[in-house]
Amino acid sequence: MKLLIFDIDGTLTHLDGATSRAYAKAFEIILGRKPNTDGVSMHGRTDPLIFRECFERSGFTGDWRAPYEAFKPHYLHELPASIANTKRTFLHSGVRELLAALAERPEQFALALGTGNMEAGARVKIGYFNLSDYFPVGGFGDQHEERFMILRDAVTASESFYKTEFTPDDTWVIGDTEHDVRGAQAIGVKTLAVATGGKYSVEMLRETGADDVRPDLSETAEIVELFCR
Ligand SMILES: [Mg+2]
Predict the structure, then answer these.
(1) Which CATH number describes the domain made up of 2-15+90-228?
(2) Averaged pLDDT for residues 55-83
(3) CA contacts within 13 A on the Cβ side of 99
(4) Helices (H), strands (E): how many in the chain?
C-alpha cells in the first residue's frame, strides 16, 4: 500500500489571499495593530513560523507563543468567512479527478494531509471544497515550525489509522514548494512537486531534486501510475 501525503495550499486549493486576510484580522485583534508582512512568505511555511515572523517584523519582542495561542481561535473564526467572501477560490486542475481515482483503490492507496496549516484551519479549507472524507488523518502545523516534523507526524498518524507500516519507498509527498520537497527529502520519502502554487515554476521545482515535477495534477492516469512505482 502506498501512502500519499498531500499539501493543501497551492497544491490542492487556491484561496486567493483568504488565508492572509484572516491572519491579518486575527493578528490585529490580538496585538492591536496590523501585521507587518513585508518579506514574510506563506508559501510552504507553517502557521507558527508565519506568526512568529509577523510578530517579530511588526516590532514585537519576547515570547510569541502565548500571543500565538490567543491568535488561533480568532484566526479560525475569521477563516471561513474570509474564504466565503473571496471570489476566486478553486481547486487546482485535476485535483478532484485524481482524488476520486485514488479513493477508488483503497487497498492500494492511503491518503493523508501534510500541511503547515493548524489542523482546524486545514479542516476548514478542505471542508470548503468537500474533500474532508478523503483525508481522515494528517500531519499539521499546530506543534511544529519545521515541515519535516509535520511530514513525520503525517506518516505516524497514517500508520496508526491505516494499521499499515509505510516504508519511505512506499510514501509520497505531493506539494507545490521547495519546502515540501526538502521536508520530504529530510525523512527520505518520494516527492511529486506541482507548479500550481504560483511561486515555484516547473524549472525551479526540478532543481530541488523532486522525484517527479508536473505543471499540475491533471494527468490522472499517469499520476496514479507514478504512485504505483
Ligand atoms: Mg503549499
Answers:
(1) 3.40.50.1000
(2) 96
(3) 23
(4) 9, 8
Can you give the pLDDT at residue 142? 87
Question: pLDDT tens across 147-168, in order?
Answer: 999 999 999 999 999 999 999 9
Long-range contacts, stretch 104-108, CB < 8 angstroms, 24+ apart: 107/1, 108/1, 108/2, 108/228
Which whole number is the average pLDDT over 167-194? 97
Residue ranges of alpha helices (H) inside 32-64 are 47-57
Query: How many A from CA of 103 to the centre of ligand 1?
Result: 22
> 89 alpha carbon to ligand 1 midpoint, in Å?
15
Distance 56 CA to ligand 1 centre (A): 23
Global pTM value: 0.95
Q: Residue 176 Cα, ligand 1 centroid: separation in angstroms?
A: 5
Read off the C-alpha cell for 124: 476548514
Which residues, other chains included, contact 229 with Cβ-Cβ below 8 Å and sequence gap of 6+?
Answer: none
How many angstroms is it from 193 CA to the middle of ligand 1?
10
Q: Which residues surround ligand 1, an ion (CB under 5 A)?
A: 7, 9-10, 176
φ, ψ for residue 93 (rounded to 5)? -50, 130
